[in-house]
Amino acid sequence: MADKPIMARATAVWLVDNTTLSFKQIADFTGMHELEIQGIADGDVAVGVKGFDPIANNQLTAEEIAKGEASVLHKLKLKFNPAAVGEEKRRGPRYTPLSKRQDRPAGILWLVKFHPELSDAQISKLIGTTKPTIQAIRERTHWNIQNITPIDPVALGLCRQSELDAQVQKANEKKARDGALMTDDERRKLLSTEQSLSMPAEPRIPTAIAGLEAFTLTETPKEVEAEMDADSFFNLPAGGGDDEDDE
What we know:
Elements: H1 8-18, H2 23-30, H3 34-42, H4 62-70, H5 98-101, H6 104-114, H7 120-127, H8 131-138, H9 153-156, H10 161-177, H11 184-190, H12 193-197, H13 222-227, H14 240-246
Helix pairs in contact: 1-2, 2-3, 6-8
Protein name: Cytoplasmic protein
Pfam family, one: TrcR
InterPro entries: TrcR (IPR010421)
């Protein structure tokens, strides 16, 4: 029995939009990070992903959701889903049903746009397409490029979230082996949210004070300090005030 639902991200989108479950309950059920669920609610994560109804797709019951809405401590229980069995045991080339093959360009464009670190071979393995098609979409020379809208391939059912996460993790490990330097933003993009939050942030200098680290104050010469006593600020030129009064 699978521990997590299929199309976890699309399921999370549906739960955020259609229930009052807490972010933690949805995160625990889908296997995602709580911050990712909050990002979905804020519109920053899973943009363009269509919600996947877990009730209609036999992954949750309405009664189970009602229990979760009644108590934030209740953990949602996944119904048995034969389609999710053996998810991690698939071997060999991927077969894409005829009904979904027309969706592959949209999935490829989404991966190229949001995960440029993935190689053509990785995208081909995820979606089951050819490298020339991927290259055409990368270079925007595909015959239908003007009509292709990027859509998460997980939401399209072209691959599973766990498979996408595994390929992103491999891309990250390869980049680390190659010794490439990564910024904070790149690391958070390549890693899962939980992993990126555990990594130390790179020291940054605000642009407003950039260059001030080399700035030093010059010392005031002692002879100048001697002249800058309190009395010197109140000494007026002799006779200046009387002349003005006489006039």
